[in-house]
Amino acid sequence: MLARLRLIFDNFTLILITVVITATLLPAKGDAAIFFEWLTRFAIALLFFMHGAKLSREAIIAGMMHWRLHLLVFSFTFIAFPIIGWLSKPILTPLLGVPLTIGVLYLCALPGTVQSAIAFTSIAKGNIPAAVCSASASSLIGIVATPVVLNLMLDTNAGTTGMGKAIIDISLQLLLPFLVGHLSRPLTAHFMVKNARWLKNVDQSSILLVVYTAFSASVVSGLWQTVPLPALAALFIVCMVLLVFVLWLTTFLARRFGFNREDEITIVFCASKKSLATGVPMAQVLFSSAMLGPVLLPIMIFHQIQLMACSMLASQYAKQSSADSEHV
Question: Is there a domain that residue 1 lies in?
Fold first, then answer.
């Protein structure tokens, strides 16, 4: 029973839920809100510095040559996924309301995950070098692509800060620390590898801090008055349907274009997943304080559902690979 619960809710998810409850009951206000806002900016810069420092140039070069795979992953992440969200707007708006619909569209515009996409590709016995290259490049491309794609899908009064300002702010707050971190690899790479276990806690703590600050501002602005319980329940269903559809579609496209099983696995796990680690700090830059809470709810829910579904899917792929090896 405990093992099943841990499969559904990992430690980070439980802490994330606790942070949302804390922000609901004890939101940061006044001077405390200003303090957390500055602390959050530092945490975001540290988070992306660490992402840059972890990025191996050798892994990028090893996977870069597989251009057909990367083209399909990036096309799905930044074109097909947003089109699916945009075409669903007439259904989503009356079902979820405008704030949560904007959150779903933001989810569709985000880059893919890095750590979990690579981890699931490894478990499923997929093309790991290609997954490292594709997932890492997706995060980098998303710094510019996400605000551009989002701007195309949203109305001008949707609570965003404006595309031009957003790209400048994202470049300063996310891209610059990322590049500095990557350029520091000759000095920091050994430290990052040696201390990977506790540095993961720093990574996750940064996300939790941003979530608390964002939800505090949204709660003060009346988050739970604008997001009723029926809409929240509908959002869970929307996220599940969306994930099932994109998992089916990425699998279909990988097979339709003649990729082998290892490449198919990489395409499915890199193209169907959306990054909470990038989405949370980027929302802080792209949206006004009042919009942050409803905008983040879809990616937080989708993140947990994708972990559960992809964990089971990776196990199935691994079993198929083992069965095929036994018959050889």
Answer: no
Q: Which residues pair with 160 in a beta bridge?
A: 287
CA triplet 197, 73, 273: central angle to 5 degrees? 45
What's the predicted TM-score (pTM) here?
Answer: 0.76
Structural domain range at position 234: 30-320
In a domain, 226, yes or no: yes
Let me know the angle formed at the C-alpha of 245 by 240 and 248, rounded to the nearest 5 degrees: 125
Q: Does residue 37 lie within any of the structural domains?
A: yes
CATH code of 228's domain:
1.20.1530.20
Phi and psi torsions of 160, nearest 5°: -85, 165
Please count the structural domains in the chain: 1
What gap in Å lies between CA 139 and CA 145, rounded to an integer?
A: 10
Ordered per-residue pLDDT tens for the chain, 328 residues: 444 444 445 566 677 778 888 888 888 888 888 888 788 778 777 777 877 777 666 655 655 677 889 999 999 999 999 999 999 999 999 999 888 999 999 999 999 887 778 778 888 888 877 887 787 788 778 888 888 898 888 865 554 555 566 566 666 766 788 778 878 888 887 787 777 777 767 766 777 777 787 778 777 767 677 777 888 899 999 999 999 999 999 999 999 999 999 999 999 999 998 988 788 888 878 887 778 788 888 988 898 788 778 878 888 888 887 776 655 5
